Amino acid sequence: MSENTDASTSPGVPAEDPTPFGWLTTADHKRTGRLFIVSALLFLVLGVVLDLLVRLDLTSASKFVSLDVDSFAQGFAFSREALVLLFLIPVFLGVAIYMVPLQIGASNLAFPRAATASFWIWKISAVVLIGAYLGNGGPYGGWANGVDLHLLALGGLVLALLLGSVTVATTAMTMRSPGLYMDETPPFTWSALVSASMLVVSLPVLLGQIAILYVDHRYGRVFLFGNYGIWERIDWIHRTPQLFIYVVPVLGVAAEIVLAAAKRRVFEPIAMYFTIGLVGLFGFGAWTNFAITGEGADIIDGFEGVVLVGLYGGALLGTTGLLGLLGLAVIQNRKLPKINTSLIAAFAAGKLVLVGALVGLIGAAADWLEIAGRGNDGNPQLRMTTWVTGQQSVLIYGAGLLGVLAAIHWWAPKIWGRQLNELLGLLNFLVIGAGALLAFLGPALSGLLTEQPDFVYADPNATSLYADWVDDTGAEGLSALGAAGVTILLIGAVILLLNLFTSIVLKKGAEAVEDPWSAQSPEWMLPSPPPMGESGELPMLTSGTPLLDESEAEEVNA
Amino acid sequence: MSDTTPTLASGRPQRPRAQLVGTGFACAICSMMMAGALGFYMARRHASGPHPGHDWLDGLAVPNPQFDYALLTLVASLVTAHWALWASRRRDTAHAWTAIATTIVLGLGFVNMVMYSMNRMGLEIGSGEYQNLAFATTGLALMIVVVGLLYLGLMGLRSLGGSVGQQGSTSLGAAVFFWDFAAFAWAVTWYTVYVVK
């Protein structure tokens, strides 16, 4: 990737060391951000391939791919962990590590070395995680030490992501340019702060659980029966409502891009911050569903239905409010904004967060109110079927991946100094959009119509049942639809990497100017990409939209 | 950059509270980690059956006086930690050094007493459900205390090694804040695992 390491614009700030040792010990948030983004995109391919293997297995027990029960369970667990802990959280963390200081006029992160340490701990833990799975470890592994290794790697990943989140949240709270108040910060910075803060108060629960699981599995397995019992206690981090916390930055990206395209401020800034915060807030509490109630102390027993309806309803309300505010800004402009990859991907990603919340609300309401006999007469609740897989797909692949596509196309000039190929970008949007839609529809319809069970993780017999789920209800066909969607998504992920490679590494992309999009926020006042010590170039900020302020002042003067 | 860009000042943003806010986030992480572990502990205890009637402790006797003394030692270390902060704000290096050293000695004494109490209790890892859960939860709480000790020692050296100024006091204040939290985390763990059991 291209790298502006030549010089520092601020006196006393050294140029970065271009050697590998320099990358290892860098204190430049931009390098750390790039490392996170590129690594997470590579891990995306791994996660999608694993998900594809699992979904292909569900299309038929004998054709295409035939995994035995253990391999199926391992593949399922690995794909979820790869998509969430190796792709979705770190990719937005990387964008936040890069962009937040630039957006608030800070010279660097609050703890730049901690951010670098977070990347390397994350990377090493990711390698250990892959090694544990390859050695037949993982939550369903047959190699006991490998299972322990998997738990340690998981702990390392969570610790690293928490460290990165603390640096981002502390930077947004304490390093803003004097005069730039919290209610003036650009929406992406606010969404990064919300997401990081919510990660800080939710993910550590997993650390506590991992400590206990590790001790018990390593020493005697007193209450863990074999390996069964691990996955059911850690799976909450891959499910809603926790998933909403991971996609909060998507809302920030959408707000940033749509408002810039509309060339307007949001109608009511406080309402925008409130709606983004609401989605993060209603993402909290997933661990109470599975980790605690699963142990028998049902702290929300009897209220689970209403609690879930409340959480999904709140997330839906927040997303609807934000999209409404953005829509008003577009209408206020009275002319259609110029269409580009970032804009349509951001718009679609925002909508898909809404769809994810709606899908959750429908499932929770149907279970709670026992609509169509759900939860009665032997009918499984919707959240016990592949309806949940559909919801995961729409949030991770739909909202998450399209949000990443939007963010990378939008900020590529600022991150790498070159613009990505727009035609390839539009094609990429169509491919990812179509893939995400099919990946969502297949399992969601299968759960709704055929009652195909969600992966039942505690009971070996039920696992076997799931892995060999073949009957005449049509589940096979719908699983094939989902598998086709994931295949298309794999093509989409490859196109995204290809676009980055040709535009940035092969330097085919147009060299970026300071502000190629006529955007609003402070980072576009800096060179593309900004050199080290960029704050010397920034004026004291009093607004999150200095470029819009400037153009409006020019209009008034004219 | 355009000439019309508002150039009020080329002020490099200050970071007066960054360490304190970062420490606050670290405390939040540790709180939720302990909540997860203790929630797990309580859920397993609840699931193990009605009490009394089922011997959850598996015949183990908790040495209450030793654990109580350990807690009192930790409380005493809070007083000396705040003494260090008080002294550093007054640029009284001699008192600050003495107070930090005393805090660290008391902290190490606390860790030693807890280890001794667990040993005296005959808590053997892998020998039962309570034992494994007690080891994991106590281990996490002790880890927070040890991190707090290291943080306090490091910030003490940093702030007192140079000069005891406002910036140094802020760093030490962040470390003392974390130490307060570590004591609270231990108190909750002790009450859950060794008092309520």
Largest interface: A-B, 61 and 53 residues
Enumerate the spans of chain A where pLDDT stays under 50 for 5 or more consecutive residues.
Answer: 1-13
In which range does the helix fraction of chain B lie? Answer: over 70%
CATH architecture of chain B: Up-down Bundle
Weakly predicted, low-confidence segments of chain B: 1-13
CATH architecture heading of chain A: Up-down Bundle
Give the number of DSSP strands of chain A: 0
First CA to last CA of chain B: what distance? 65 Å
CATH superfamily of chain A: Cytochrome c oxidase-like, subunit I domain
CATH fold-level topology of chain B: Four Helix Bundle (Hemerythrin (Met), subunit A)
Assign the CATH topology of chain A: Cytochrome C Oxidase, Chain A
Radius of gyration of chain B, rounded? Answer: 21 Å
Averaged pLDDT of chain B, please?
85
Number of helical runs of chain B?
5
Describe the structure.
- The complex is a heterodimer of chains A (558) and B (197).
- Chain A is mostly helical and 558 residues long.
- Chain A has one domain: Cytochrome c oxidase-like, subunit I domain (Cytochrome C Oxidase, Chain A), CATH 1.20.210.10.
- Chain A has helices spanning 20-24, 29-59, 69-104, 112-134, 144-174, 187-202, 204-218, 230-234, 242-262, 269-281, 286-292, 304-333, 341-369, 387-416, 422-450, 460-467, 475-505, 546-557.
- Chain B is mainly α.
- Chain B contains 5 helices and no strands.
- Chain B is elongated and about 55 Å long.
- The interface between A and B is large, with 61 and 53 residues.
